[in-house]
Design brief:
By secondary structure, this protein is mostly helical. The chain is built from 20 helices and 4 strands. It folds into 2 domains: 332 residues, no CATH class; 118 residues, no CATH class.
Length: 488
C-alpha cells in the first residue's frame, strides 16, 4: 500500500471523525445538558462586556476575564442578542442559549482536530485516529457542550501543546515557541489552574530545541505577561486587596474534592475513565514523560485545592483519550500478532467506539431544559411592574436584565444575603440549585418560607433510570427537574 494512499485514507477517516464530533457536540445542543448555574454566570459577564461596562465582574475576582471577552467578541460579530428578534416565547428563550452552545460545540470539534494533530505529531496516525475518535464519541465529552471557561480555554491549551511539539526540527522554532506561549498565556488568562501545564510545554520546547535557553525565554515571556493583565487591572482600579482576598478564597472553598469528581467521572463514563487511568499508568510506567507531565501536575493541583467540580477534568480529557488509545492499541496489536489475525485490532476498537457512540446518542437525545425556558417565559409575561425584585439564579437573571432590560434584577438570589431589597414585592425562582445554596444564609430560607408558590415547572425524568449507565449522566442535569416560582 503506497504512502500517498495511506495519507488519503487517513484524511477521509479524519473527516468522518470530525463529522461524528460535530454530531455528538451539536445535536440537541439546547436540550441537553441542562442550563447550569455557572453557564448563566459566564453569560452575564459576557453581556456585561458586550454592553460596554468593562471586562471585570463588578463583585467578584474569581477568574480572569478572557472568557467573557471572547464570548462578547463573538456575540458582537453576529449581533447577538438583538439579531434574534426578542420575544417572550420559550422558543426564543431557548435560542438565547443556542448561540453560545453552538460556539461551544464548534470549539469541541476544533478540539477533536487538535487532539488528532497532537497525537499524530507525537505518536503517529494510528494513535491519532484512535485518540480523536474516542474524544469525538465517548459520553463524558458532553461536558464540553456547557458554556464554561474550561471549554473555552481547551483549544488554546491544545494549540499551545501542538506548537510546542512542532518546535522539534523546525526552522521557525522561535516563532513557534512564542505562539505556544501566547496560546498558553491566553488559556491561563481564561482560568488560572492550567498554569500546571507550564512544565509540560516548557519541557517540550526546551528538549525539542536542543536545550535552547533562548527559545525557552520566547515561550515563557507571553506565558507570564498575558495573565499579569488581571492583577494589574485590579491594581489600576485600586482593588488589589479585593483581588488577593477573592483569589485565595476561591481555592479554599469546600467541596467533596478529587475523590468525588473521580467517582462522578467513573459513573458517567466508566469505559473512558478505566481505560484513561489504566492507559496513563501504563504510559507513565514506560517513562512516557509527555503523558506524565500533562496529567500529574494538574491532578496534584486538584488534590491541593478545596473546591472541585466534575467539569474540572476538561483540560486532561484529551490526554485520557490519548493514553487510553496507546494502551488499547498496544494490547490489541499483541493479541492480533498472537492470533495472526490483522482484522481483530480494528474490529474490537470499532466495537468500543460504537458502544461509546450509542451511549452518547442515548444521553444527548434527552431534553432536560424545557422547564427552564418556560420559567423564564412565565416571569417575562407575568412581571411587569417596577416594584418587584426578581431573585433567580444567573441562568434566568442575565436574560431578564440584559435582553429584556427589566429593572430590579440582581445577578443571582444570593444578593439578598448582603443587601436590603428596596421593592415592595419579591419574586423568587427556587430551582434545584437554589436548594443546594439554601444553607448559605438564613435570609434565603426565610424568603422561601415566607413566599407563596404561584407556578411550578417540572421536567419529567422519571422514565430514565439514573442509577444505571448511560442515563447516570442525567444525574448531573437536573436543574430543570422541579422549579418553583414564588411571590412574597
Amino acid at each position: 500500500m503506497s504512502e500517498k494512499f495511506k495519507q488519503i485514507r487517513a484524511i477521509y477517516i479524519l473527516a468522518i471523525i470530525l463529522t461524528l464530533s460535530g454530531f455528538t457536540h451539536l445535536w440537541n445542543t439546547v436540550g441537553f445538558p441542562d442550563i447550569f448555574y455557572d453557564e448563566g454566570v459566564y453569560m452575564e459577564r459576557a453581556m456585561h462586556v458586550l454592553n460596554g461596562l468593562g471586562p471585570q465582574d463588578r463583585y467578584f475576582y474569581d477568574h480572569p476575564y478572557f472568557g467573557q471577552i471572547f464570548l462578547a467578541a463573538l456575540f458582537g460579530l453576529v449581533g447577538f442578542p438583538n439579531s434574534l428578534h426578542p420575544s417572550t416565547d420559550p422558543h426564543f428563550i431557548a435560542s438565547l442559549y443556542f448561540v453560545p452552545r453552538l460556539v461551544m460545540g464548534l470549539l469541541a470539534v476544533l478540539d477533536t482536530f487538535l487532539v488528532y494533530q497532537i497525537a499524530d505529531t507525537k505518536y503517529g496516525k494510528k494513535i491519532a485516529l484512535a485518540s480523536s475518535l474516542l474524544f469525538a464519541v465517548m459520553p463524558f465529552t458532553w461536558i464540553l457542550r456547557r458554556i464554561l471557561l474550561d471549554s473555552i480555554l481547551l483549544p488554546f491549551l491544545l494549540t499551545s501543546i501542538l506548537f510546542a511539539l512542532k518546535t522539534k526540527d523546525s526552522k521557525n522554532k522561535y516563532m513557534l515557541a512564542s505562539l505556544s506561549g501566547i496560546c498558553l498565556g491566553i488559556a491561563i488568562f481564561t482560568k488560572i489552574p492550567v498554569f500546571t501545564m507550564i512544565p509540560l510545554i516548557a519541557g517540550l520546547v526546551y528538549f525539542n530545541t536542543g536545550r535552547n535557553i533562548k527559545t525557552l525565554v520566547f515561550l515563557l515571556i507571553p506565558i507570564f505577561l498575558i495573565p499579569l493583565i488581571w492583577p494589574l487591572q485590579a491594581i489600576g482600579t485600586q482593588q488589589f486587596d479585593v483581588w488577593m482576598r477573592d483569589v485565595i478564597g476561591q481555592t479554599q472553598r469546600q467541596s467533596f474534592g478529587l475523590p468525588y469528581i473521580s467517582l462522578v467521572f467513573f459513573k458517567l463514563d466508566p469505559v473512558l475513565f478505566v481505560l484513561g487511568i489504566a492507559g496513563t499508568v501504563f504510559t507513565i510506567i514506560r517513562r512516557n514523560f509527555f503523558i506524565l507531565f500533562w496529567f500529574i501536575p494538574f491532578v496534584i493541583f486538584l488534590l491541593m485545592i478545596g473546591y472541585n467540580q466534575y467539569f474540572y477534568w476538561i483540560p486532561i480529557l484529551p490526554v485520557f483519550c490519548i493514553s487510553a488509545s496507546i494502551l488499547t492499541m498496544n494490547v490489541l496489536e499483541r493479541l492480533s500478532k498472537r492470533n495472526q489475525n490483522k482484522v481483530l485490532s480494528p474490529v474490537v476498537f470499532l466495537g468500543l467506539v460504537m458502544f461509546g457512540l450509542a451511549s452518547t446518542i442515548l444521553v444527548i437525545s434527552v431534553n432536560v431544559t424545557n422547564s427552564e425556558f418556560q420559567t423564564t417565559s412565565f416571569i417575562l409575561q407575568n412581571v411587569h411592574d417596577t416594584d418587584t425584585t426578581v431573585l433567580a439564579s444567573p441562568t434566568y437573571a442575565w436574560i431578564l436584565h440584559y435582553v429584556f432590560h427589566r429593572e430590579n434584577i440582581p445577578n443571582d438570589y444570593s444578593f439578598v444575603l448582603f443587601n436590603h431589597l428596596q421593592t415592595r414585592k419579591i419574586l423568587l425562582v427556587a430551582d434545584p440549585h437554589f436548594f443546594i445554596d439554601l444553607g448559605r444564609g438564613k435570609q434565603l430560607q426565610q424568603l422561601y418560607n415566607d413566599s407563596k408558590t404561584i407556578a411550578t415547572f417540572d421536567e419529567d425524568l422519571s422514565k430514565y433510570d439514573m442509577s444505571t449507565y448511560p442515563y447516570s449522566n442525567i444525574k448531573m442535569n437536573v436543574d430543570g427537574e422541579n422549579i418553583q416560582v414564588k411571590m412574597k
